[in-house]
Amino acid sequence: MPRQREKVQRSVAHYRNGTYKEHMSNLSLSERLEILADAAKYDASCASSGTAKRHSRDGKGLGSTQGMGICHAYAPDGRCISLLKILLTNHCIFDCHYCVNRKSSNVRRARFTSKEVVDLTLNFYRRNYIEGLFLSSGIVKSSSHTMEQMIEVARSLREDHGFRGYIHLKTIPEADPELVERAGLWADRVSINVELPTETGLAKLAPDKDGKQIEGVIARIGDAIAESRDARKRFRHAPRFAPAGQSTQMIVGADEANDSQIIERASHLYNRFQLRRVYYSAFSPIPDASAVLPLKRPPLIREHRLYQSDWLVRFYGFTANEVQQATDADGMLPLDIDPKLAWALGYRERFPVDINRAPREMLLRVPGLGTRAVAAIMQARRCHRLRLDDLSRLTRFISSLRPFIITADWRPTLLIDRLDLRARTTPPRQMELFG
Amino acid sequence: MSVAPAGAGDLHHLTIDRPDDFDGWREQARTMAAAYIPPECIVWSADGRGERDLFGGPGRDLAPIPSSQRSVRANKAFLRLARSVMLHKEPARFALLYKLLLRLQDDPHLMEKVADREAHRLTVMAGHVRRDIHKMRAFVRFRAIKESDGTERYVAWFEPDHHILRANADFFLNRFASQRWSILTPGSCVHWDGKVLTETSGANRNDAPAEDATEDLWRRYYGSIFNPARLKVAMMVKEMPRRYWKNLPEARMIPELIAGAQAREADMVAQGVDTFPEALPARLEEIAQDISLCRRCPIGCNGTRSVPGEGPERARLLIVGEQPGDQEEREGRPFVGPAGQLLDEHLNRAGFDRSLIRVTNAVKHFKFEQRGKRRIHQNPTAGEIDHCRWWLDAERRLVKPDIILALGASAGRALLGRTPSVAKERGRLHPLPDGSSLWLTVHPSFLLRLDGEAQMRERNQFQHDLMQLRAML
């Protein structure tokens, strides 16, 4: 290990002194895979869903996509592994404090050629390890130069090998807009990270990035996606542009932004740019972290609550404003209960809800009822009035539902007004998992 | 199985050819339902999987086949459910579906009653099948083998919970039609040769290839993409149940990854933790003494002599270099080597009185690489600069300079907290949080590395920076 370290430091020194000439190329493919996958693990997204349906039944090319993504493996961090998620290189000319690849960081550096990425993707895909490729990169030479290299990987996969699996390209906002648009023609999904929820956070922690520019590119990609959808309505063979839409990622816990601000920002991104997903990534202690950042365990439970709030807005008909009402005085969502329950406890006068009569929107507000349970209830109640027993087959946890609902044989008398309702509905606290 | 002896007059023994044969079941169920045969008078069995009647009946219906008496109806929802449930391993699936089919004749809205006990049970079974199909798509792992004609064939061994292989073959065909592949399971196997899909009887694990070189790469990937700072094992096991692990090449790494996670995370955190004491040194001598004992970064541990700052205890100008060089380390004084001499020359020309200036370095120890007898200078890393900054901050507090001249990007980093671009940021004053200002220029050792016209140009530029600075003091 010390020898390894010394070797690496020497290489870094060569690089800094300008005598760097592919010193890393003597690293084996698997060593570089290790470095460049390790560097990619801070990206939360691994979705392979929601793109156009394709197949290679004709025996030409390789691969298929369907509406639903497939998680081919799960890592011990509980995250799905659906795509080969790697960086083309982790050399970077930017110096963002939260990022392990910032130029001042002391990590091992490596790079792939585009052919190596293409071969790796195909070899993994043929063995059914992955759904496709998620390619990101540190910035070498210039943003446009890097973007071109990434597009070349996607082009080669699609054109030279007829690859019909999923491709997600992380675009670089500072690159030539024309390049970003080319990326969308090969990729199923393109994304740009807004990185931090607030402008001040961005200015402090990512001094080389510009929030306005990032939003500008997101807007341009949004337009291109809309245009392509529109064109395909009129011309069947109009080229598709990023059929799985675009997504972005925010880092949670690296700056001072509270949950309310984050929800606000996410809602702005959804409404203004029609993003498919906003991902949250709890800031992890990264090797060689910058002195500007707090070094502690990532607030995983906070990240989880933010995702739940995201769901409320996207699938449960909540407005961002309503979710914000579930936050406390400091603008933070409670960590011990989910935001839907927190909202319900704040608006007890809206409950109990009659399972047999309430409209769908109101059923969706009942803590403990998910979209599928609500759909099942809507269907079942057309035939007969539902009782608790019926409901127990349609939902998971009937006991926590009770205070909030009325069925043919159940009416919570004073339960909804009880002061200890929060304690009664709060799941027992887990052991300290998330310091 | 039924307790009635085989051949009992009113008992119908119906055999389904294959465990997943929906059409076979449908034909027979329709005939039976048309004749109002009640569920308890039918014994269903599937051939080929040991699900056959234990009483050794010949496998075909013994009772006379009833002639049709009514037309049997089934709506789309029922058919969709039945197709799915047919793949379930539960031997009672034929009977359960038949029972539901009979009830459907009397109650056309039965399928909408999702809370109905029997319908619900079948819906749950369909859910098992759907999940198994999905997990097979996810967890089949092909291994490449060379065939006699030199082409590759991708072979996988998989153990599904239910009879889903045939139903799932289409998925693999859509995806991998351009390569030859086989999926072997205990129940049956499917093979694709590029043109036709063929089926053979069940296989065992040893029929599949034992290794594939690409799996090492895949395992490397799996071990690296995992973030040890966020261990959530329960979540992983929920989505990737242990029963699948034995056929997943990456799964053998899981125990090791989990066991090592805490150590890896601790390493990640420890690398960045600041271990300096709370109180800042009160005198410059203290700093000089303490830096010689500092072992908080690799340079501090390399056995070299530390080099403290030099000059008056209070100074209006503090010059910060990068780190002591070979000669500085030998003498224990800053800026006495070639770069220091060049700096002195330029300072004199700009009209500075060197005795009024304090000089120091961003990093207090000499980092080098031994090459033969020579010690070749190496740049400190950003982490090392950030660590050593604590000493520089302490020195600044005592010296209280109005302006700090930073020589080079390393010195700039020690003052700004980020690595500046010297070319872009020289020639202007940067305000610092303590009220002083920063003036940034190149390091004189940079000038020494140049020659000819480039050196002349850069030296002039350096001189110009110093003159501007002189005018401000």
UniProtKB/TrEMBL annotation, chain A:
UniProt-listed SMART domains: Elp3 (SM00729)
Cofactor(s) needed by this chain: [4Fe-4S] cluster
Residues covered by the Elp3/MiaA/NifB-like radical SAM core domain: 82-309
Keywords on record: Iron, Iron-sulfur, Metal-binding, S-adenosyl-L-methionine
Gene Ontology MF terms: catalytic activity; iron-sulfur cluster binding; metal ion binding
Segments traversing the membrane: none
Pfam families on file: Radical_SAM
Gene3D superfamilies assigned to the protein according to its UniProt record, in alphabetical order: Aldolase class I
InterPro entries to which the protein is assigned, alphabetical: Aldolase_TIM, DNA_rSAM_put, Elp3/MiaA/NifB-like_rSAM, Endo/Exo/Phosphatase_dom_1, rSAM, rSAM_sf, RuvA_2-like
The keyword Metal-binding appears for this protein: yes
Source taxon at top rank: Bacteria
Listed NCBIfam families: rSAM_link_UDG
Protein name in the entry: Putative DNA modification/repair radical SAM protein
From TrEMBL, chain B:
InterPro entries noted in UniProt: DNA_repair_put, DUF4130, UDG_Type-4/5, Ura-DNA_glyco_family4, Uracil-DNA_glycosylase-like, Uracil-DNA_glycosylase-like_sf
SUPFAM superfamilies: Uracil-DNA glycosylase-like (SSF52141)
CDD domains (UniProt xref): UDG-F4_TTUDGA_SPO1dp_like
Gene Ontology molecular-function annotations: 4 iron, 4 sulfur cluster binding; deaminated base DNA N-glycosylase activity; metal ion binding
UniProt keyword Methyltransferase, yes or no: no
Superkingdom, natural source: Bacteria
Keyword Magnesium appears in the UniProt entry: no
Protein family membership: Belongs to the uracil-DNA glycosylase (UDG) superfamily. Type 4 (UDGa) family.
Name used for this protein in its record: Type-4 uracil-DNA glycosylase
UniProt lineage: Bacteria, Pseudomonadati, Pseudomonadota, Alphaproteobacteria, Sphingomonadales
